[in-house]
């Protein structure tokens, strides 16, 4: 079992527009609405890869009900903590002619102390039944900056392998609890070390430094269409993913995390896991919804991922 945690769940809305002129009226002919927020995207991809998953986190209001109903329709198990207020809408406006994506992310509900305590309990309960727990995304108002420290510690004490995909203070604090894996982008690596990364050699040095400093199992730095660089206890690898026709890249990082979680839960080797994670991220880029992949496409792409030991 894999558990995903989304403290700021969302309805992900995508508007597909031929162009997106600012200051003009645009009538939307085609759109999609899906349950989202990073951890929920991870859960959707894990389920599409055929591994049992439970999604937890905070949800609120009508949007919260919609998130749960949409997950039910997808056959994805969930066990959320309900909060006052409304779960957010995250809007992605895709200007298809220019290939530009503009994201507008609402703040989400304010979480009260009682709900925080309930969440700690939920993590204790689900981590005890899970091989992998993935914590993903931003913290809504009312959630202390160091909440991931508590949750990661609880999940680790219960014996789960912990993946943390967060940014800013949430990541910085969360690292103190010793997650097994993180998936920062280059900017987040720079922020964590207070340096500028000029080239791949500098990036390699930076991720190896982070790996040793926090005693992690692996760090994947995702590089969009350029793939990823992964430092692990077994060495550092440059992972190149196939070039494809891109439709929508929102959720690629979550799909990558899902592939990694599935590989760990099913006992794949590190190299096999890197290929699966990259293929899942790339397959997501070819679909129009965050957290949507094509399992057959993933199978095809897996064989085309190039992994080089550095
Ligand atoms: N343009 C692309 N073409 C092919 N594969 C892609 C592309 N963008 C992303 N991917 C795949 O998805 C993986 C993760 O993507 P990315 O680096 O964009 O993550 P991210 O920045 O965390 O994304 P997000 O936060 O939107 O989920 C990449 O390592 C790659 O395998
Ligand atoms: O505000 P967060 O939690 O950091 O990010 C939220 C979000 O932009 O991330 C996903 C893509 O990774 C979207 O589906 C989602 O709405």
UniProtKB/TrEMBL annotation:
Pfam families: PfkB. It catalyses: beta-D-fructose 1-phosphate + ATP = beta-D-fructose 1,6-bisphosphate + ADP + H(+); D-tagatofuranose 6-phosphate + ATP = D-tagatofuranose 1,6-bisphosphate + ADP + H(+). It comes from the Bacteria. Its EC number is 2.7.1.144. Residues 18-282 form the Carbohydrate kinase PfkB domain. It is an enzyme of class 2 (transferase). The keyword Nucleotide-binding applies. Keywords: ATP-binding, Kinase, Lactose metabolism, Nucleotide-binding, Transferase. InterPro entries: 1-PFruKinase (IPR022463), Carboh/pur_kinase_PfkB_CS (IPR002173), PfkB_dom (IPR011611), Ribo/fructo_kinase (IPR002139), Ribokinase-like (IPR029056), Tagatose/fructose_Pkinase (IPR017583). One of its GO terms (molecular function) is kinase activity. Pathway: Carbohydrate metabolism; D-tagatose 6-phosphate degradation; D-glyceraldehyde 3-phosphate and glycerone phosphate from D-tagatose 6-phosphate: step 1/2. Belongs to the carbohydrate kinase pfkB family. Belongs to the carbohydrate kinase PfkB family. LacC subfamily. Catalyzes the ATP-dependent phosphorylation of fructose-l-phosphate to fructose-l,6-bisphosphate. PANTHER family: 1-PHOSPHOFRUCTOKINASE-RELATED, ATP-DEPENDENT 6-PHOSPHOFRUCTOKINASE ISOZYME 2. This is Tagatose-6-phosphate kinase. It comes from Paenibacillus cookii. The lineage of its organism: Bacteria, Bacillati, Bacillota, Bacilli, Bacillales.
């Amino acid at each position: 079992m894999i558990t995903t945690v989304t403290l700021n769940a969302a309805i992900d809305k995508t508007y597909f527009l031929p162009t997106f002129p600012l200051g003009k009226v645009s009538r939307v002919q085609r759109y999609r609405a899906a349950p989202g927020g990073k951890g929920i995207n991870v859960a959707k991809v894990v389920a599409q890869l055929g591994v049992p998953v439970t999604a937890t986190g905070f949800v609120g209001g009508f949007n919260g009900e919609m998130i749960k109903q949409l997950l039910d329709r997808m056959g994805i198990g969930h066990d959320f903590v309900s909060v006052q207020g409304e779960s957010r809408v995250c809007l992605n406006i895709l200007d298809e002619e220019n290939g530009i994506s503009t994201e507008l992310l609402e703040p989400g509900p304010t979480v009260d102390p009682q709900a925080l305590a309930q969440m700690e309990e939920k993590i204790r309960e689900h981590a005890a039944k899970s091989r992998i727990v993935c914590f993903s995304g931003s913290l809504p108002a009312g959630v202390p900056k160091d909440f991931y420290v508590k949750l990661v510690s609880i999940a680790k004490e219960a014996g789960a392998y912990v993946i943390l995909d967060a940014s800013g203070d949430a990541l910085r604090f969360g690292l103190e609890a010793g997650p097994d894996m993180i998936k920062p982008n280059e900017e987040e690596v720079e922020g964590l070390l207070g340096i500028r990364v000029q080239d791949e050699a500098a990036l390699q040095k930076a991720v190896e430094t982070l790996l040793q400093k926090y005693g992690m199992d692996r760090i994947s730095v995702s590089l969009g269409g350029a793939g990823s660089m992964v430092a692990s206890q077994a060495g550092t690898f440059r992972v190149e993913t196939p070039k494809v026709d891109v439709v929508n890249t929102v959720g690629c990082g979550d799909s990558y995390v899902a592939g990694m979680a599935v590989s760990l839960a099913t006992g794949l080797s590190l190299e096999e896991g890197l290929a699966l994670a990259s293929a899942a991220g790339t397959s997501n880029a070819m679909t129009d919804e965050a957290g949507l992949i094509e399992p057959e496409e993933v199978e095809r792409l897996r064989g085309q991922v190039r992994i080089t030991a550095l």
